[in-house]
Specification:
The chain has two domains: 230 residues, Aspartate Aminotransferase, domain 2 (3-Layer(aba) Sandwich), CATH 3.40.640; 125 residues, Aspartate Aminotransferase, domain 1. Strand 6 and strand 7 form a beta hairpin. The longest helix has 22 residues. It is α/β, with parallel strands linked by helices and 372 residues long. Helix 3 packs across helix 6 and helix 8 runs parallel beside helix 11. It has eleven helices and 13 strands. The strands form three sheets. The chain has a seven-stranded mixed beta sheet with strand order 1-9-8-5-4-2-3, sandwiched between helices. 46% of the residues are buried. Bound molecules: pyridoxal-5'-phosphate. The site of pyridoxal-5'-phosphate (PLP) has 15 residues, from helix 3 and helix 4.
Length: 372
């Protein structure tokens, strides 16, 4: 049996006609950059997330970069974030000449440990970037409380968490600014790159909207030094179609997570691996179903041999990346993140994953541990 980590074709087959019609309509219009298609998507996404503003940009990485630029982050500033995340979270900080200050994660949720923040705050701290990793929100009440007390801003890296919520508030509406990605493997994926910044602050939204078009409101008049980070009308039209199905696809992921939990328990595998834990109040959208496994690398090779796709998100914490040697962090600085990097394994969880394939994944993992 062949079980890919993600099968985008299975999703595309359900909506092919609708997507093709949307693409054709944009081609007939011959309007490709921003325009009414992008505005319509922005409005729909602002409604979905529950913020008053949403600004579509070229990628999730740009969303983070533009959010930091809108807050005026630059050389001399510090931004607190986690080392156990995708590179872009931290890359956006260092690209602006600011300094990332890492705090460790919680072992149960892989998200920022708010109790580590206080000792990392300095007079130079401008912002905190919690990451809603794998599709569940970080502990935003504690993070916001701390940020408010010290007058620093909170940018949510919600790239993996569209549709997730915490105590009824959606990811992207929990901080000062929310950043999303429409990379194809995200829960709402385009046919290429795309991203979004959400906020309830009209000044910040206005600044991000200007920054994405070279800091210009009136053509050829530049108020700020921005960049080109526009979303294509084609991507907007495709994403508008897919947004209608997002909740249904998320429910499919959540059903698969429940199924995994039941089967792993029945197979008595809970001594060999730790299943994802959902924090109280969180609605998890399972962009990834990430377990911790004993003999992770051997297990992964065994599964590959049996036709099962898995991935390690992420194998090297960012404080140990070669490009960040000058930050001066050593191995052992963030033990929870370092241990996670050695133990995590993400399993297939996409909505259309057939039941027999999911069962095969669990059976194959059981067979591995029976032999080891
Ligand atoms: C995907 C992702 C990003 C970056 O998004 P791109 O659209 O690929 O630039 C940033 N942070 C996290 C946590 C992500 O998963």
């Amino acid at each position: 049996m062949n079980v890919p980590l993600l099968d985008l074709k299975a999703q595309y087959r359900q909506i092919r006609g609708e997507v093709m019609a949307a693409i054709e309509a944009v081609c007939d219009e011959q309007g490709f950059i921003l325009g009414p298609r992008v505005i319509e998507l922005e409005q729909a996404l602002a409604r979905y997330v529950g913020t008053s503003h949403a600004v579509a940009v070229a990628s999730g990485s740009d969303a983070l970069l533009l959010a930091l630029m809108a807050l005026g982050v630059g050389p001399g500033d510090e931004v607190i974030t986690v080392p156990f995340t995708f590179f872009a979270t931290v890359g956006s900080i260092t690209r602006l000449g600011a300094k990332p200050v890492f705090v460790d994660i919680r072992p149960e949720t892989f998200n920022m440990d708010p109790s580590q923040i206080e000792k990392s705050l300095t007079a130079h701290t401008k912002a905190i970037i919690p990451v809603h990793l794998f599709g569940q929100c970080a502990e935003m009440e504690a993070i916001r409380e701390m940020a408010k007390r010290r007058r620093v801003r909170v940018i949510e890296d919600a790239c993996q968490a569209i549709g997730a919520s915490r105590n009824g508030v959606q990811a992207g509406a929990l901080g000062d600014l929310g950043c999303f990605s429409f990379f194809p493997s995200k829960n709402l994926g385009g046919f290429g790159d795309g991203g979004l910044v959400t906020t309830n602050d009209s000044r910040l939204s206005d600044t991000v909207a200007i920054l994405r078009v070279h800091g210009s409101r009136v053509r050829y008049m530049h108020e700020l030094v921005g960049m080109n980070s526009r979303l294509d009308a084609l991507q907007a039209a495709i994403l508008r179609v897919k947004l209608k199905y997002l909740d249904q696809w998320t429910e499919g992921r959540r059903r698969n997570a429940v199924q995994y939990e039941r089967l792993f328990k029945d197979a008595k595998l809970l001594e060999r691996l730790i299943l994802p834990r959902t924090d109280a109040g969180n609605h998890h959208v399972y962009n990834q179903f990430t377990i911790r496994a004993q003999k992770r690398d051997e297990l992964r090779a065994y599964l590959k041999d049996k036709g099962i796709g898995t991935e390690v998100y992420y194998p090297v914490p960012l404080h140990l990346q070669s490009c960040y040697q000058e930050l001066g962090y050593r191995k052992g600085a963030f033990p929870v993140s370092e241990r996670a990097a050695e133990e995590v394994l993400s399993l297939p969880i996409y909505a259309e994953l057939p039941d027999d394939q999911l069962t095969y994944v669990v059976d194959t993992i059981a067979a591995f541990y029976n032999h080891h």
